[in-house]
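Exercise (ungraded).
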Amino acid sequence: MSRILPVFRRSLGDSWRSLLGWSLGVAAALLLYLPLFPSIGGNGEMQQIIDSLPPELVKTLGYEQIASGPGYVQSTFYGLIGFLLLVIAAVSWGSSAIAGAEESGQLELTLAHGVSRTQVALESALSVIVRLAWLGLLAAAIVVMLIEPAELAIDPPDAVGTSAALVGLAALAGGFALLVGAVTGRRILAIGAGAGIAVLAYVGNAIANQVTDAQWLRAVSPYSWAYRDQPLTDGTDWAGLVLLWGVSTVLVVLATIALRRRDVIG
Amino acid sequence: MIPAIETFELTKRYGAHQALHGLDLDVTPGAVFGLIGPNGAGKTTTLRILLDIIRPTSGTARILGTTPGEGGPALRRRIGYVPGELRLEGRLRGRQLLRHLAEISGPVPPGTIDRLADRLGVNLDRPVRALSKGNKQKLGLIQAFMHHPELLVLDEPTSGLDPLVQRTFLEMVREARDAGQTVLLSSHVLSEIQQTADEVAVLSGGRIVAQGRVDSLRLSSVRHVRAGVDGTSLALLRGDLEKLPGLSDIAVTGDEGGGIARLGAKVEGDIDPFVKLLARHRVVDLTVEEPDLEESVLQLYGSGSVEEATHV
């Protein structure tokens, strides 16, 4: 009777509308920004504007490379809008997966049936990862599709590698939200934790961009792990990916352990 | 015979609050066992421990021969559970929800879900969040009964149900017993327990204050009655009432010169003498209130002290 991955399938079934919304957001952001590159970034005017700005601001925003195709896509989408969209989606899904289900009473009902807590935690996490991966895949596909028409000069595999870094970064924030949700059972705390770590990662990277003495921040900022080696220009940064996905995996494992040990109160 | 449910010295502490103080329960297989007590007595805590949703601070529970932790998912497939606070949200339709729950419980014979839904009168094609409390509760009952589990653990299962559906539910419980299923039923409504349960444990303040066969516990003994009678003098009526054993809080009002006399009283124990007395007059209306659980339990067995507990 028990078919494969029941909790995972239920979770996807419950959230396809929200996934559709986030997909539209990602597609809209890419389709609005990227085709503008030939007229903004590609003709040298953009570089003049950037040159006229205070260098600290440019560094903070990560806009040094904005006049090149990969730099433009990195600065507008992967480093900013896409980062925001995927992190918000990941934190929202990660906090709902355990804490949200507990607060709504759904978790008690699920756990009263023939599923283990490990199964519930892992299948819920898998559902979040799959949804994020879908958004990453969609982003990569749209970027690749726009390389020719928008004169982006990006190597297609690099778009895939950078999307993997973006998804890993979002998964880390989502994984942290999942963990705090699994420990506390409180959705609001989970959201705060997930959003907090994303903000710290971004700010840490931005400070490291302009303060020479703060380079160590790159070692601890997941945002830096994802983007410091400019994967869209210089090719996929495998070490960064291993770090992002490794930490995300550890967070999921910790969330599973936490849920196994705790009373579910709702 | 291995008890269907057995707990030893079960305690549960939430921070400074102790919800259970050494609970010993013993539920015979095939019996309907009622767990009654006022709100906050520890009923929900006990039932959640049986399902491994929460873990006891100390003591053990054995269900169908194993512990909730060791039994795990395989054990829970053999149990049907209605949570005390059933909340259902989301756009999911009733049918989809039940299909999902069927996948993670014991095998559900084809047609069972629709048959139960027809019987309880709930529309499975509406999103669960649009359902009334009573209709959500019906979905809760369906998911607990649909796989014919060996053990049904029902926490306040009739809350929100209208009286007609409550009757259907009581039939379902009796049928489950006739089919050899064990039922553990918690309630704060006495009549519900009295109509179904073979055995009962009375919980108060996290302790069992009385346990035994339903009829052996003097649980139905406190009733509030109100009546209007015609053709008697108030003084005569009051005198007759005061002579009856077990009557207290007697109030008789009305017109001294005749007409309808209104009376109210608290009857403890046998209600027959009171009814016989009324029958001598023309009764124009009569209300016998559901015995109040707190009154029946706490008055008769003290405010939860173990020493006064009656074990039968």
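Further reading is listed at the end of the chapter. For now, observe: Chain A has one domain: 6-39+69-261. The radius of gyration of chain A is 20 Å.
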